[in-house]
Amino acid sequence: MAPVIAALSRRPGVDNVLVHTGQHYDDRLSGDILADLEIREPDHFLAVGSGAHGAQTARALAGCEELLLKIRPDMVVVAGDVNSTLAGALAAAKLGVPVAHVESGLRSFDWSMPEEINRVLTDRLSDLLLTTSPEASSHLAREGIPAERTHFVGNTMIDSLRRFQVKAQARESWKPLGVRAGEYIVVTLHRPSNVDVPAQLSAIVTELQALAGRAPVVFPVHPRTRARLEASGGMAALTGAGVRCIEPLGYLDFLSLEQDAGAIVTDSGGIQEEATALGVPCYTLRLNTERPITVTHGTNELLGEAPEGLRRVGIKPGPRTACTIPRWDGHAGSRVADAVFSFLAEGETERRAA
Fold it and tell me: pLDDT-based confidence at 50, cuts 50/70/90?
């Protein structure tokens, strides 16, 4: 959202209020990242916290509704597919406030993923659907969303990546880890299907131990993943095999780690996109992806859900694949602001005519 907030802030006559639900609250996964992205201090913090999906969504919904009743905005802009995305959209829709959804139309077609439920429901509630890639717009058309409500704006995450790429590279966050640029593999895993099932996590640990025998492995460990690994003894097994299990990193340090990696293993949608933008080979430990353009572009390989798929991971020689995806050009945030501004202006014209 950083590029959207910046672009809206440059628009005369448009006030934007920044709400942080507090779904992500760890300093490294929240405060540090806001600072790295130069996002201003949020105007409101709802302190939703963690918990079961239903409870977390309910707290975010209640907090958003209470706030919207006080602010009475002309539009609510939500992004992505987390529980707070759905909560913000639902609170707005029930109050008759128009909703704009950034990263609309992404589909994995896997209803076992909580994010898929959030994506689909948020799109049904939205008045302005802002897509990152052409196939996302096609998904919405097939679902009966009128074409005039859909705008192909590009990927705002890539705006941030391009803006901070040079600054991040200068950090060389991989150096203190005793690895060399282009010769290590970054691993991130956090999805319940990978880390909450003991047998699956145990098999992943075994394969990562073997992977560390082929190339240095750097594993910034998500707090929930760390808890599962420590409880099962997996953390000791990984560190014993030489895997660099480190704390989560801020945005700039992680971007530095990504762009100098020889390869990336992940189950994250956003990291699939960042790897594609950087041209770093990516291996996704999932059966499916809501970002299929990263696969057809040739930078991302779906390994499936069997941990044995990690045996296909390696550092490929040769030049990186240049990113040629349309509108992943660093200007998506401005196009989002244009679409929001036009929507609000049309609404104002209609109100005056009435």
Answer: confident
Q: Give me 213's structure tokens.
A: 């025998």
Same domain as 184, residue 308: yes
| 33 — pLDDT class (breaks 50, 70, 90) | confident
* Residue 319 within a domain: no
For the question of residue 101 being annotated catalytic, the response is no
**Exposed, middle or buried: residue 315 (CB in 10 Å: 0-12, 13-18, 19+)?**
middle
Digit-coded pLDDT (tens) for 56-66: 999 999 999 99
Identify the CA nearest to 271 among candidates 291, 287, 241, 249.
291
Number of domains in the chain: 2
**Catalytic member of 24, 44, 190, 331:** 190
The stretch 129-138 carries a mean pLDDT of 96
CATH of residue 251: 3.40.50.2000
Do 263 and 179 sit in the same domain of this protein? yes
Residue range 139-154: mean pLDDT, rounded: 97
Q: Are 82 and 61 in contact (CB under 8 A)?
A: no
Both 9 and 79 in a single domain? yes
In whole angstroms, give the CA distance from residue 182 to residue 288: 27
22 band by pLDDT with thresholds 50, 70 and 90: confident
Quote the DSSP letter at residue 155: -
